[in-house]
Structure formats: structure tokens, C-alpha cells
Design brief:
Two copies of one chain form a homodimer. With 343 residues, chain A is α/β, with parallel strands linked by helices. Chain A has twelve helices and twelve strands. Chain A is elongated. The structure holds a DNA duplex (30 and 30 nucleotides).
Chain lengths: 343, 343
DNA sequence: CCACACTTTGTTATCGGTAACAATTGCTGC
DNA sequence: GCAGCAATTGTTACCGATAACAAAGTGTGG
């Protein structure tokens, strides 16, 4: 990459003036070369780049940010909970941002209430981020949150119950319909549903899609169960479900919970899919490899992350850009955890 | 939090001088209050904080970084691959850094060769990070990598084959011994091993611990198999292993691969644990809930992240601090995937 | 009541780039 | 050959905080 990064031993890292001097031009010209300004003679450009190379010069982004007012950084607010989907989205966000020449700064929040989210956003604002991706459900926006998202282009990934930000989302309702219909098509009389925490709009949408599908099909709508996305909560729900012989099909709002449900059923002596069919949601890497392999809805998390970034960038370029929510399509992946009901 | 973040509508965010004016002091005093400088009268401190509150003032970290030379930021280089352990460590790192008043900036790399890692480090250096956590295995350090880690306190999480950085690691050898001995204690004649990619020092250490344990016990050492951490690669290995009737126990270097192995065995009609016992590594959330529940080695990833940060911070404070590798203890979690060999 | 030491606060220069504007150079066509 | 315009490069001020130093205020002992 560079020929000699550490030329002398002791002194501080080289600045633009050092490069300018070596190349025999002014600092401003160096700046222009490095920012890709069009009107620079090819010859000087080469000289400057050579000097940069020779000194191992690195731009000081703090100085650039201060002087230009642009930080080329996007902030992400995410929940301090470890989950698969979050990790995948984070990757999608980072790579998309990098491709656009932006870096990503993360702020995690432990809770979902407005002050906590506002505080995370405040930390990002201090770093002069140019846009914010809220990878958490925004339940109630307080004045601070509103103010931030008015001042800085903000996109919400989980959807939002407020007006403060743009939205990028998977069509959760359609996805839930897909899952529910798959089970009905197999011949099940009705479908139970283990939903995620109600605070998550995604969870609510899935539940809504499930309910709607059953109603449209004229089927009985069983009571809605709730977990917290964790395998353990799925297990607890499974212990309940497993005791009810009339349950033959369950649509679970996340793969991790689904495996918890399956385990509980297993322990209660009910086989999957022979006795009970299960559909999950997310299509995590393990879905195809645990036993039974899980029928599930694939969510293109990285794509969602990518789009969120694209959305934010568009708004950064043109703050008045329209706020059309984007939507990506879910897909049903049929594996071994679903089957027609026992005769 | 703040009373009125957006006082007027249009103007730019308030600066320190605005706060100073409102509080009737100089900008320097405001700076001192906000940096927790000791010699400030209580009364003025209160006045300043009130002004800060009223204006909804936020520090401009670019300016602070430029002027003080300290960015209060730690950089993390991670692999652009989605895996559970990475996500957990990321969380540990972020929370530990935040607790110390630092923010985290991430740079992902798609490959493990020196130029790619150097490039990721370069991006972090541009952001003036004060320390770097390399959450990737450093195979071969080139001059750039060396130069960076000499200039900036750097910690490697996966261990390192170079001398360029400090090390924080789980005692992988002891962990592998734990796993292997567990299987031998159950009565298995020997234990097979599906290792991770050799580039990862962690993977090599686990393989080493496994081999050593077998040799010490005077057992035959079967050929070492390799996967890439993914469930799919475990599945492929499982298809191989499953065809050999003499295999009764396998130690797999990651839980995700372990489930892949189990699935393959399952398809080949070999039961786990009745015919073959499996021990995994990581203790991911699903380990206890898939069937069979996986016996595995628990790695305290968040703790590792925390320690890595602690280590970096120590070196930031005192660049000459000793380079004692830290080590955290692994733990065996026995679940349903292991049993004595069939009679 | 003053000198000396310690607090507390203010002033000025500076970090390393970029914006805005000025100056120089090179080329066109008449 | 020179006006006129574009391309190229240089100059100066400034972004918003902090470091280093200077100055004013406070308190103590002799």
C-alpha cells in the first residue's frame, strides 16, 4: 500500500502542509486532489499523490469535519440486545455506508423509552452524524427525539408510530399472510400465533397479518401469545401450547422462539411436524440445520440495512426529498417443520 | 432531559460561546465545567449547566478532537461476516467503551490478508481513534499493520501470530481439553475433531488442545477436519463422519457447525447422542433449545469484549504499560448431545 | 496590613483542514 | 497582438473547541 508509513521515528503524523511542501504546491491544492475536485492538472495530481504516498499521509477527519461541516458519518441506534437480525442489518448498513464513502457510528440503548432513545441520538449528534438510522422501534417520541429527527435525516427500520422519521420496512403483513396461508393450505383448521413484544411494530404487523388471514378465511382466531424474541420465551409458550391437543399449527414470530417452541413440544411428546406444524420468521443460518429444519419467512436483513442507508443518504443530499416508505418482499421457505395435519 | 432543544427555528446549533454568554462567563470556563475540571466554583458551574440545558447545547466532538488531540474513540476491526460471537463481542466492546466515556467506530474487512486489515486500520486512524481492537485473526502483519499498531495501542482478540499487538484471549487449549476429556470420560475410545479455518488462531488452539489431550491419554488421534464456522460446512463434514461407523464422539469447534454435523448424521440415520456424541463450542442462545440440546463450551464473549477494551484503555493512559495477555476461563455445559458410547 | 500561595477566571494562539475569493496562467478568436 | 474566458493554483479567514499562559480574586500567617 504505502512505501514507508513511518518515515522518521518520533515526530507527529504528517499534515497537509507537509504534503504540499513536498509536492511543491499549496495545501489547498492537496485538499482539492484528495477531495476529487475536477479542476486539477493531471501532473500536479500525480505529484500530490506521490507525496501522500511517500509520507504515508492520512487525512484528519476531525479537521475536515470541523472545517467543512460535513462528517461523512451515519449514526445507528440499536438495541443493546444481541440478536441475529440486528447483526445482519448492522453489516448491511456498514457496507452500504462505506460504499458511499461514509463511516458508521453506533449508539446502543438499553431501553426503548423516549429519553433513552433521545440520549442515544444525542450522542450521535455530538459526533455530528449527517443522518441517523433508528434500528429500534420508536414507541413514543418525546420533544428531543422529534427535534433530532427534524434536524437530521432519520430513518426508522422497525417502522414507527410517530411522524418523526422515514420508514423502511419489510411488508410484515404480507409475510404473515404467507406463513398463515401456507399452514391453512396444508389443511390445518386454524393457526396459532406466538408474537413478539408488542412494542415492536414489526411484531404487531405480523400479528395483524396473521389475524386478518384467518378472518378472511373464516377460521377461528385463537388467542394471541407473546414472547420476547428469545428461545426461552418460545419454550415457555411451547409448554402452554403443547398441552392443548387441538393445536396443530403455530406461526411463530421469530426463528429463535420457534426452536424454543419446538423443544417444549418435543419434551411434551408432541412431534413436529407430525402432530404440530411450525413456521418461523427470519430464516437464520441455523434454520435449515436444526432438527427439524424450520419452515420460515426469509427476511433480507442486509438488504433492509442497505436500503435504510440509501434512504438516509438521499435525504442528506436533498433534505426535502419525498418520504416514500420503501418496502422489500418477504419470501416463504418451506422446510421440514410443516406438514398436513394428522388424519 | 432538556427543556427546549429547538429554541428558535432556523439558526445553527449553539456553540460554547453562546453558552458562555448566557451564563455570563468565558468560553474557557464552559469548557472546564463540561470537562469536569476541578477548579470551578460551584455557583458558576451551576450557571453554566443551566445555560447548557436551556440552549440544548451539545459539544462538538470534531472540534474537541482537533483541539485536544484526543478523540475519545476506540476503533474495532471486525470481519464482514455475520456470526453470533462477533455480535456479542461487539456489544461487550461498545458497552465497556461507553462506560469509560469512549465511543466506538467500526471498520469491517472482507478478507484477512494484511493489506485488507491495514486498510481497515487506516480508516480508523483517519478518525483519530486512540486505540484499536482487532477482532480478527492477524495472520501476517505487513509494514503498515506493524506501523499502526506501534503508533496506536492495539489489542488482538483472536490472538496473533505477530508481535505487533497485545492479546486478550480465552484459554482455548484448556477449553478444548475440557471438551475432549468430557467425551473420553464418558467412555469413548477416541474423539474426532472438526476444526475451524486454520487462519484463526482460536481454531488452531482448539485443535491443539484436542490433539494434546488425546495424546496424553494415549488414544489414537484421528485426522483433523476443517470447516469455515458455518452450519453448511458442518453439514458437509457430518456427511463424511457419518459414513464411518467407528466414529462415536466428535468435538466441533463451533456450535453452528455442530448443528450442521448433527443434521448430517441425522440424515444418515445415526442418532445423537446414542450413536455419536457431539460437543460444540460457544454456547449460543439456541444451543439449549435445538434438538438435541448441545453440550458445549461457554465462551463469555461479552466479557472478552469488555477486557479487550479495558486493555486498550490502560495502554492509552500509559503507553508503556506491560503487555500481559489476559485470559478468561472457559466452562463446559453438559446437555443432551453427549452420552456414553453404545454398548 | 502586606506578601505569598492558591483558586478561579479570562485571553490568545492553535489544532488541520476547507470555503470563498483572488491571482495567475493558457488558450480562443478576431 | 490582445481582449475575453476558462482552467488552474494560491491566499486568507474561519470552523469550535482546548492548551498554555496571564490576570484577577481569596485566604493565610507574620
Amino acid at each position: 500500500m504505502s512505501q514507508q508509513t513511518a518515515t522518521a521515528g518520533g515526530s507527529r503524523p504528517p499534515g497537509m502542509t507537509d504534503v504540499a511542501e513536498l509536492a511543491g504546491v499549496s495545501a489547498q491544492t492537496v485538499s482539492r486532489v484528495l477531495s476529487g475536485h475536477p479542476n486539477v492538472k493531471e501532473k500536479t495530481k500525480v505529484a500530490v499523490l506521490a507525496a501522500v504516498e511517500q509520507l504515508g499521509y492520512r487525512l484528519n477527519s476531525a479537521a475536515r469535519t470541523l472545517s467543512s461541516g460535513r462528517s461523512r458519518t451515519i449514526g445507528v441506534v440499536s438495541l443493546a440486545t444481541v440478536n441475529y437480525s440486528g447483526a445482519v442489518m448492522a453489516y448491511g448498513i456498514e457496507s452500504a455506508a462505506r460504499a458511499a464513502g461514509y463511516t458508521v457510528s453506533t449508539a446502543t440503548t438499553a431501553s426503548l423509552d423516549a429519553p433513552a432513545i433521545a440520549s442515544a441520538m444525542a450522542r450521535l449528534v455530538e459526533q455530528a452524524v449527517e443522518g441517523i438510522v433508528l434500528a429500534v422501534p420508536v414507541l413514543s417520541a418525546n420533544d428531543d427525539v422529534e427535534a433530532f429527527s427534524r434536524r437530521i435525516p432519520t430513518v426508522t427500520i422497525d417502522g414507527s408510530r410517530t411522524e418523526s422519521a422515514e420508514v423502511v420496512e419489510l411488508d410484515q403483513v404480507a409475510a404473515a399472510r404467507l406463513a398463515t396461508e401456507h399452514l391453512l393450505d396444508l389443511g390445518h383448521q386454524t393457526v396459532w400465533h406466538l408474537a413478539g413484544p408488542l412494542e415492536w411494530l414489526d411484531a404487531a404487523s405480523r400479528a395483524h397479518g396473521w389475524r386478518e388471514t384467518l378472518e378472511n378465511a373464516g377460521r377461528a382466531v385463537p388467542p394471541e401469545l407473546h414472547g420476547d424474541w428469545s428461545p426461552e420465551s418460545g419454550y415457555q409458550a411451547g409448554l402452554l401450547i403443547g398441552r392443548m391437543p387441538e393445536v396443530t399449527a403455530v406461526f411463530v414470530a421469530s426463528d429463535e422462539m420457534a426452536f424454543g417452541v419446538i423443544r417444549a413440544l418435543h419434551e411434551l411428546g408432541r412431534r413436529v411436524p407430525e402432530d404440530v406444524s411450525i413456521v418461523g420468521f427470519d430464516d437464520i443460518a441455523l434454520a435449515a440445520y436444526c432438527s427439524p429444519a424450520l419452515t420460515t419467512i426469509a427476511q433480507p436483513f442486509d438488504e433492509i440495512g442497505r436500503r435504510a442507508v440509501a434512504h438516509v443518504l438521499r435525504r442528506i443530499d436533498d433534505p426535502s426529498a419525498a418520504a416514500e416508505p420503501e418496502s422489500v418482499s418477504p419470501q416463504l421457505v418451506v422446510r421440514g417443520s410443516t406438514a398436513p395435519p394428522a388424519a
